[in-house]
Amino acid sequence: MPEGHIVHGDAVRFRAAALGRPVRAASPQGRFADGAATIDGRELTSAEAYGKHLLLGFGPHTLHVHLGLIGAWTWWTPDGEQLAGPRTTTGSGNVRLRLTIPGGPVAELRATMVCRLLDEAEVDTLLAGLGPDPIREPDPEAAAPLVRRSRAPLGTLLLDQRVAAGSGLIWRCEAPFHARVSPFRPGRDVTADEWARTWSALRTLMTAAVPDPALDLPTTPAPREAPPTAARNAPISTRAAAAVAVTATREAPATGTRETAVGTGGATVGGTDGAAVGARDAAAVGTREAPAVGVRDAAIGTREAAAVACEAVAAAREAVADGAREVPVGTREAASGTREAVTTNGHSTDALHATFAVFRRTGEPCPRCGTPITTAPLTGRPTWWCPHHQPH
């Protein structure tokens, strides 16, 4: 499922391309014909992401999009050359909504779960039920009360959209690793300091993933070399090392970490998450976000993995420049063998496969201590962790 940073990236792209400009709207598929006719020719007045929800303002009307498991925006030049989004072919057969910016790009929405128009009262109802979004909310106390009251494991809570709107399977593994907290620890047993570290890591990782969320690349990490035996504090990756330097330690907090305030919230509609956006988003502690394990490649999305890596080198260098501990750039990019750099949509993606610290790295050595990474089901979905740094 496209996670929150993907949706924030969509909002960033819409603001850059169309804010303050009239937009032509059409529904080639026909399923959103009335809605498209209503906003056709209107000026885009706002573009915000709230967790996994995208809200595009067109005067008195708000377009509400929730991508669900496999939905996506694709972007094209007027001549039909794809600019961003999962690789596909042009054509109107499965396009729910096409937004054309005169003199600019074209955005096409496919396979979405929710595409509807809301009035002001309906937007208020949506927002009233949302949890804090790590990309927008810096204060861990915003979600702490729910965590402190819960017996559910931390990894489950990080899928609950009332606790961390926009978080998903990748971040529920990576953030606890950086915070050195077991994903199996019950929420009520997580200390205030541990939760603060977890929230800060979640915020840093997700925010860093926002700028370019639409590269069409796999989520499977590349092989990596085992770290030195004594390298307990060895850099995790250019992306993760920046997160560790900024979030998982308090020895040298970085002051220059990018913080993109582009929306808050989660995925609850009228108090029942899933009533409007489907049961795939967790609405209650312990509810699975996307129960179909067999589709997790689609659920996580090829786009998300690329998003996590798109500015990895820059993030690490910022952490170093801001006084955090030194992070050798490209440490985990040195995989076994030489891999040719791939360029997609004009961006180098060579760092992609060296991004994740524990996600989908079963049996590989922990980049800090060398202990084999372990995986096990948690709330019906797999999770990965280091038994040494994240003991139950």
Explain the layout of strands and helices.
Blueprint: H1 4-18, E1 24-26, H2 33-39, E2 46-50, E3 53-58, E4 61-66, E5 72-76, E6 82-84, E7 95-100, E8 106-110, E9 114-118, H3 120-128, H4 144-149, H5 154-157, H6 169-179, H7 192-208, H8 238-248, H9 296-300, H10 302-309, H11 312-321, E10 343-344, E11 347-348, E12 374-378, E13 381-385
Helix pairs in contact: 6-7, 7-8, 8-11
Task: Describe the structure concisely.
This protein has 11 helices and 13 strands.
Describe this structure in words.
- It is elongated, with a radius of gyration of 20 Å.
- It has helices at residues 4-18, 33-39, 120-128, 144-149, 154-157, 169-179, 192-208, 238-248, 296-300, 302-309, 312-321; strands at residues 24-26, 46-50, 53-58, 61-66, 72-76, 82-84, 95-100, 106-110, 114-118, 343-344, 347-348, 374-378, 381-385.
- The protein has a five-stranded antiparallel β-sheet with strand order 1-7-8-5-6. Strands 2-3-4-9 form a four-stranded antiparallel β-sheet, sandwiched between helices. Strands 10-11 form a two-stranded antiparallel sheet.
- It starts with a helix and ends in a 7-residue tail after the last strand.
- Mean pLDDT is 72; it is low at 213-219 and 226-354.
- The chain is of the alpha+beta class and 392 residues long.
- 26% of the residues lie in helices and 15% in strands.
- The chain has eleven helices and 13 strands.
- Helix 7 (192-208) runs antiparallel to helix 8 (238-248).
